[in-house]
Design brief:
The structure is a single chain. The longest helix has 44 residues. The chain has a domain of 34 residues. Helices cover 72% and strands 0% of the residues. By secondary structure, the protein is mainly alpha-helical.
């Protein structure tokens, strides 16, 4: 990966690159988090219920 030079002769603006990358990542994360919430919500919900049942049924465990 080579950096283009800006008119001032400095390397490509890292602030702009970082902003763009963060923006892209946040969009990807939003989509992933959304689907994870759908799947994870049911898994975590079921898991929590299971743990509660286990705690009630086996208090000595």
């Amino acid at each position: 990966m080579h950096l283009r030079r800006s008119p001032t002769g400095q390397s490509l603006d890292y602030g702009a690159i970082t902003t763009i990358l963060l923006h892209q990542m946040s969009r990807v994360l939003q989509v992933k988090t959304y689907s994870l919430h759908a799947v994870g919500g049911t898994i975590i919900g079921g898991h929590t219920l299971f743990l509660l049942l286990a705690a009630i049924l086996c208090p000595n465990a």
